[in-house]
Amino acid sequence: MLRRAFLAGGLAGGAALALAACSGTLPKVDAKVASFGRNATGTVHVWCRAATQAGLTAAVAGFNKANPKLQVELTPVPDGQYVTKLATAIRGGEPPDVVDIDDINSQLFIFREAFADLTDVVKGLDYFDEISPGHLRLLEYRDRYYGLPYLADNSQLFVNTELFERAGLDVGDATKDLDSLLAAAKAIRKTGDDVYGWSIAGNAAGIIGFVTQPHVWATGVDMMSGEVGAQKANITGNVALERMLEFYRQLWKDGVLSKATYADAGTTWGADFRAGKVGIFPTSYGATVPAATKAMRAKMQTVLIPSWNGKRSFFDGGDNMCIPNGAANPSGGWAFMQYANGLQQQQALPDGGYFPTRSDAATPAYRKKYPLAFGPLDAIDKGYAPQTLAYNLLNNQPSSPYFAMFREAVFGSGAAAAMKTAQSEYQRILDQVQA
Fold first, then answer.
1. What percent of the chain has pLDDT over 90?
2. Fewest CB within 10 A of the end CB: N or C in the chain?
3. Which domains does the chain have, with CATH numbers?
4. Measured distance CA(171)–CA(187) in Å, rounded
5. CA angle 104, 415, 241 (to 5 degrees)
């Protein structure tokens, strides 16, 4: 599954909205008691996304081996069904003990009071200050925390240093802002008829959102503004967004992107870069590194995604772990969550294609073992993903306004008309979800 199936399951906001009528009736989990997470026994039922199951299987096996009196049963749920199935379980009064949920969907349930308030135990962790603030922010509502980040799926720019050298480019100088990136991509394109400066899956909504939005976020602005539940569209007049769209349009017009980009739905995402035919590739670690040859990995270098004015960011994708109110074994659930977030377990995440969510995981030994998996950890405060109830409707579905705007701006009539249409569509969706 590429880019975790591009997050493209069309996770419906309607299922989460239905929680408003029932989630408040579930027994609240008391995570303040001194015994919470200690001496728990029995079974912990954990749901995970099928797409990220590989990142969790080893942790479950290790926990079960170390805790014979407290066993975890892991249930993978298809990404496209996750929100609906979880909402149904909560409405039925039988939620799992722990949910390993796509971090971008955490707010859907937090806003509806479906997840336990874990503020005291989370802030009491001795590594609290090392946790990814972008992931934590997706677990925060009104200064309280409703879960713990588990694994990160971050977007970065991967570059082919061999092609950079062939084009006479310095990686640092050539990747500092959008202008330098455009010049570098054009120079690389000239090194061979079958070599392209840039690669993107131009017909995959989730991938487009994952790799292009950080160009905007790096400047400190988003495509929406305001608090969750009262957000407004911020498309027209968004200079950083317009610059990003114009950058991609120029890549397309100058032939720096292959003609296949227009129809590329991401089914072979990264194959051209791994084959050594692309100079610059915005992507995830899991979509690039594990399947690459040792020789190709040696040519790779990563940098964070720059804005038009030289600031940097990356998408804080991945999974958060939360305990639903009404869980049968919340204490056992917290015990497992602590284990899964232990340093040893976090440092093994690149084996499954993911990053740790703890910056202190980037020890010298970790850097040596995973030389392409510490960039976001060294700049962990640069990561971002928006708090919203409508991310999938706004970005991930084929009919989403962000995707339609990108396609029209890059392949169609240009940014101005595309942004104007997206402004009204963003606001319509936000009003609908927040009603």
1. 91
2. C
3. 3-153+316-384 (3.40.190.10), 154-314+388-434 (3.40.190.10)
4. 13
5. 40
